[in-house]
Amino acid sequence: MSKTVYGFPTDSMSEMEMLEIIAHKRQRDIDWKRGRAFCLIYYPGEAREKAIKAVFDQFYADNALNPTATPSLAAIEAETVSMCADLFHGDEEVCGNLTTGGTESILLAVKTARDWSRKHRPEIKNPNIVIPTSVHPAFMKAFHYFDVDFTVAKIGADYKADVQEIEKAIDKNTIMLVASAPAYPHGMMDPISEIAALAKKHNLLCHVDACIGGFLLPFVKELGYDIPPFDFSVDGVTSISADLHKYGYSPKGASVILYKNHELRRFQFSLYTKWNGGIYGSPTMTGTRPGGNIAAAWASIKSIGRSGYLEMAKATMDATKQIIEGIKSIPELQIIGKPDMSIVAFSSSEVDVFLLADELNKKGWHFERQQLPPSLHFTVNYIHKDIAEEFLKDLNECVQLAKGKKLTQLGNKIQTSIVKGLSNILPSGTIAKLQKNATPDLDNENKAAMYGMMGALSGTSDLDEIVLDFLDDIYTAKP
Known about the structure:
Aspartate Aminotransferase, domain 2
C-alpha cells in the first residue's frame, strides 16, 4: 500500500513553526476583516471580540455532554435560551437548546416533527413536510437523514412563499409547514402569519427558519423598519431556529432551536437507558458539545446587549441602503424583489453576472453566485459599515469590464448550450469527468464558464456528479 500524502508527525512542532505554516496557508483565504466578504463571516469588531473570546477561553476544553459534570454550562445554556425566547416574544413555556449551527437546528426541528407525528398522528406512515422552493437546503439534508417526505411549493412573483401553493400541497400525510424569516436567496420574508394560520387550521406544526434573520430582525423593527411579525407572537408558530453565529455575532458554531412548549421539545431528545455504560440522554444531535461555543453564545448576548445590537443593526441597515441605492443607479443591474433586511441579490439582462462576479473577485470581493435566476448574493453586516462606497466604485468599474467581454460571454453561452445538449446523449458521468479536468482551482478568478455550465445542467444527475466530484476532490489531501 502506498503512503498517504502527509504522514503522521513523529515529533512535536513549535508554536512559531505552526503559525508560519498557517500564515502561508491563509494567503488565499478571503480578507474578511476589511469587509471584503459578503458571505460566511459576521464580525462584531475587535473590542467586542476580545470580551467574547475571554469567556470562550474559560471553557476551551469543557464538554457539555454530561450536565452533572458541568452544571455551569447547563445553567449558561438555559439562560441563553431564555434570553432568546424573550427576544422572540416567547412566554415561560418556550424552551429549547443551543446547537452547533443552523443546519443542526433545522435537523432537530424536522426530527422533532417526525416523532411528534408518531405520537399525535399515528395514522401517518409516511410523514410529509411542505416547504417553499426558497427554503434552505439544510431541510433537504434533514429529510434525507430522517427519511421524511417533502413537497416543494412554488414561490410567487415577489419571491415570497405562495400561501395558496402551500395549501394545495398539504395532504393527509403532512405534519409541518415551513416558512423563512427571511429566505436566504433574496432576503424576502415569507408571509409567516398566513402560513402559521394555515398550519393551525390543519392541525400541523409550523417551523420558522430565522437562522439568518433572527438576531437582526427584532432590532431592525425597533429602528422603525416595516418588519412583519415572524416569531412566537404569531399564533400557530410552534418552533423557531435562529443562528447566534450570524447576526448574534457569536463565534462559529452556535445556533438556537426553540419550541412553543416543553411537551414538543421532548421529541427532540435522544434517550437510551439499557446501555451497560449507564443511562444515556442527549438533548441535541451531537454527543460531545463544545463548552466554549455555548459560553461564547451567552457572552455575545451579555456583552453586546440590546443597545449594542441596535447600534450594529443601524450601521448594517445604513450600509445596506447605500449599497441598494448604488446598485439601482447602475442601469445594467436589477435588484431582485424588495429585500426586508440586509440581504441583497441582483441580476442583469445586459451583463453576464458570472462574468461580473469574476471581475469583482479579481478586486478582492467575495460573495455567493446563485441560479434560478442567475444572480449575485450579498449579505451585509456590521463589518461592512465603512466599505459601501469602495464596493460601489468597484462594482461600477466591473460592470463596464464585463460588458466589454461580449465575445467571452458568447463563448460561455455556446459552451453551456453544448453541455446541455451533450448531457442528454453522453454516458452517465461523462460530463462530470470532463468538468473535473477543466474546472479551475478554487483560487482561480475565472469561473463564469463553470457557473454557466452548472446553470445549464441544473436539476440533472450530471450536475449532481460534478458537485460530488468537486467535494471529493477538495477534501482530499494534496502535496
